[in-house]
Write a structure and sequence with these properties.
- The complex is a heterodimer of chains A (248) and B (294).
- Chain A has twelve helices and no strands.
- Chain A has 248 residues and is mainly α.
- The longest helix of chain A has 37 residues, at 92-128.
- By secondary structure, chain B is of the alpha/beta class.
- Chain B folds into two domains: 2-216, P-loop containing nucleotide triphosphate hydrolases (Rossmann fold); 219-276, YebC, transcriptional regulation domain (Alpha-Beta Plaits, 2-Layer Sandwich), CATH 3.30.70.980.
- Chain B has eleven helices and 13 strands.
- Chain B has helices spanning 40-47, 71-74, 90-100, 106-114, 130-142, 160-175, 187-191, 211-217, 229-238, 256-265, 280-287; strands at 2-11, 14-24, 29-33, 55-60, 75-78, 148-152, 179-184, 196-201, 204-210, 222-225, 243-246, 249-252, 272-275.
- In chain B, a hairpin with a 2-residue loop joins strand 1 (2-11) and strand 2 (14-24).
- In chain B, 46% of the residues are buried.
- Classes of the chains: A mainly alpha (248), B alpha/beta (294).
- Chain A binds chain B through residues 3-4, 6-7, 10-11, 14-17, 75, 79-81, 83-91, 244, 246-248, and chain B through 11, 41-42, 45, 48-52, 65-66, 68, 71-72, 75, 77, 79-80, 82-89, 92, 95-97, 99-102, 140.
Chain lengths: 248, 294
């Protein structure tokens, strides 16, 4: 299994897309922090509240981790590399597990890179505007820890969606439409029907609560549990689909 | 080594393979032949555990492919040449597979050298010619130094020099005692390389035999040259024998002994009397009904 995970990580690192992901994290987190610090009022900048908000802005890395997790799976179908992969590892469920572990490792790496960028760029900006650096405050670190824990959960949902949908374009476009449009509509409909509480259990409402950035949704640990349940259910269905599929 | 037993597989309305059975003996090169669409790829993918047969079984080294301990060390396969990520270099493609199979990364360099692709190894696969992709596929199949090789149309995209190179490589690999199953829709590509052939058509077995047996089964006509073809033709026709005329040469559907006797009885001079062997290609076309596509 260790060999398979290493092979999956090598796959991820040996295409150009990898550097695009790393570049996007550094660039967007760096720009985001610069923009936030630059536009905030002087008396706000030094507060723990504001600086915790900076950390939560780095949660963007989680979405990239999710997208990478989807492509770790779907690229195999897009380029037909699923054939050599399954010739090497004919037991298909083991391939899925190896990919899930690799996606978890990469997602944690993405989150750490985002925090590193945030710490460096944020500290420079805060010093430059003469604000107190509160980034090491327990409250800020606590928010970072929750994001770090949420990263692998987002990645697991990504692998699950990828293995269930299998088509790369459908999985990526479908996921983005689901996050930014479909789920919002479902939430609105459920509220109209007076069962708005159910909406909190939708996958990305749960993931949103599981990264600790949205206190209006499910309690933290419930959200973690619900998110993992979604990953497990979608992943199991996808694995079964892969097991039955003829690779032609 | 490879045993296919009553294998059937249907895709939608197409019966790709219908009750196919054959065996590949250890240490032989077996040609797996049939026109495009005959069910060769479906059969090979069933052997490799990629396609689930509707009924029947396919085992390699005595077990279903999925039951192999270390598949890459036991069976090497070359399927479609396009199954590589275009943005990855050839060398990295092989390193990924080597890592997954628990092989040292240096093995990737070794197999690249084996297929004479070292120079192209550090380039991205999207810039490869079809021939280079075929070589990369062969390199991947050789990673685990397997005793069984399954190759689906490996000559596709190779130029004549490449086909010759492939033939020499397969012979060398077989000489090391490996078992090779190689498919093709062009008999000439493999005719000089294989020991045995399995010929299929429309998903069914047409013939399974050695090359020599296939040729022997194709009894040819007798080729006769004589200064007086019209007379000999008349004599043979009188005995109800079919005679074809081709540029002053008679092709007689009768063994040479009997043609000679007829000629001697009537005092006809013969300049040539030989058995015309059907070529493998003709046999192949005859066995598969002369169809090359479906």
């Amino acid at each position: 299994m260790i060999d398979l995970v290493r092979a999956e990580l090598l796959k991820a690192r040996t295409t150009r897309g990898w550097y695009v992901y790393l570049g996007l994290i550094v660039l967007l987190v760096g720009l985001g922090v610069s923009g936030d610090v630059g536009t905030a009022e002087d008396f706000v900048r030094s507060t723990v509240e504001f600086q915790r908000g900076l950390v939560e802005g780095a949660g963007f890395a989680l979405l990239l981790g999710l997208i990478l997790a989807i492509t770790i799976v779907t690229t195999e179908f897009r380029h037909g590399t699923i054939t050599p992969t399954l010739l090497t590892t004919p037991r298909r469920e083991i391939v899925v597990v190896a990919k899930a572990i690799a996606a978890v490792i990469v997602s944690i790496g993405f989150a750490l890179l985002a925090f590193l960028t945030l710490a460096v760029v944020g500290s420079i900006w805060l010093a430059a505007v003469g604000a107190d650096n509160q980034l090491a405050d327990p409250d800020v670190l606590g928010a970072a820890a929750k994001l770090l824990l949420a990263a692998p959960i987002w990645a697991l949902v990504g692998v699950a969606v990828g293995i269930l949908v299998q088509s790369q374009v459908a999985a990526l476009v479908g996921t983005l439409i689901w996050i930014f449009l479909a789920e919002t509509i479902i939430v609105a409909v459920l509220e109209l029907l007076d069962v708005g509480g159910l909406a909190d259990y939708l996958p990305f409402q749960a993931l949103d609560a599981a990264d600790g950035t949205n206190p209006d949704l499910l309690p933290y640990w419930t959200a973690v549990g619900v998110s993992l349940a979604w990953a497990l259910v979608l992943g199991a269905a996808g694995t079964e689909r892969l097991r039955r599929r003829d690779i032609t | 080594m490879i045993e296919v037993e009553n294998l059937s597989k249907r895709f939608g309305k197409t019966q790709a393979v219908a009750g196919l059975s054959f065996r590949v003996e250890p240490g032989t090169i077996t040609g797996f032949l049939g026109p495009n669409g005959a069910g060769k790829s479906t059969t090979l993918r069933s052997v490799l555990g990629l396609v689930h047969p509707d009924s029947g079984s396919a085992v390699v080294l005595g077990v279903p492919y999925r039951g192999l301990d270390r598949p890459l060390h036991q069976v090497g396969a070359v399927l479609e040449a396009s199954e590589v990520h275009p943005g990855r270099t050839g060398l990295n493609h092989l390193r990924v597979l080597a890592t997954a199979a628990g092989l040292p990364r240096s093995r990737a360099d070794e197999v690249l050298a084996l297929v004479e692709l070292t120079a192209g190894g550090r380039r991205r696969v999207k810039g490869y010619s079809l021939g280079m992709r075929q070589r990369l596929g062969l390199a991947a199949a050789m990673l685990g130094d397997p005793e069984v090789l399954v190759l689906d149309e490996p000559a596709n995209g190779l130029d004549p020099a490449g086909i010759r190179w492939l033939r020499d490589l397969l012979r060398a690999l077989a000489a090391e005692g490996r078992t090779i199953l190689v498919s093709s829709h062009v008999l000439a590509e493999v005719a000089q390389t294989v020991d045995r052939v399995v010929i299929i058509h429309r998903g069914r077995l047409i013939q399974q035999a050695s090359i020599a047996e296939v040729l022997a089964g194709a009894q040819g006509a007798t080729r006769v040259r004589t200064p007086d073809p019209a007379r000999l033709r008349e004599l043979l026709a009188a005995e109800g024998v079919e005679v074809n005329d081709a540029e002053g040469v008679l092709l007689v559907d009768l063994p040479p002994e009997q043609v000679g006797e007829v000629a001697a009885q009537h005092g006809v001079v013969l300049h040539e009397l030989t058995v015309e062997r059907a070529t493998l290609e003709e046999v192949f076309l005859e066995l598969t009904g002369g169809e090359t596509t479906e």
